[in-house]
Amino acid sequence: MSESTHIVQNRIAWTGLSDAVLLSQCEVDTYRASGPGGQKRNKTSSAVRLRHAPSGLIVIAEESRSQHTNKAKALVRLRQAFYLHWRNECREQAKPTVGDGDRIDLRIKDPRFWPAVGVALDMLTACEGRVSTTAERLGTTTANLVDFLQTEPKVWQEANRIRTGFGLKGLKMGD
After folding, report:
1. What's the pLDDT score for residue 51?
2. In which domain, by residue range, is 58 found?
3. What is the CATH number of the domain that holds 58?
4. What residues have CB less than 8 Å from 20, skipping those under 6 apart?
5. What's the pLDDT tens digit per position in 42-92?
6. What is the C-alpha separation between 83 and 19, in angstroms, rounded?
């Protein structure tokens, strides 16, 4: 089994790990963040960089003066990065359920949002970047799928990266 196949199969497992176990798979770097933040900002090494060794993903969090808070934010971002960057295979027969009913109506704070992003991007990849085919296989409309992909800029960027990888034009906001 190739390493990339192994990685693809682990996305679901990685996102389900406890914080402690996921953190144990990471190299943790702390450093002093630059930029605004008052007198204490540059006096403590509160910024956190996580390097997830098995996947190669790197995330940072440096907005808080608390290293503990930044570490927790970085773990959330790492889980989001798994859904954004690692694709699982979609089976033709399987019709993934995302959102409620025939619409994908999830907001970013909904715990189902990032798993739904993973499914939508997996299906977009399986459909070679074709949004209408992806929407049909997900059981929603093209407009609803595009609205969902536009919810978060990183999701929109990844959807366009997938499309251009198949030689299609990127989607424009409002499409």
Report:
1. 98
2. 3-85
3. 3.30.160.20
4. none
5. 567 899 999 999 999 999 999 998 999 999 999 999 999 999 998 887 765
6. 16
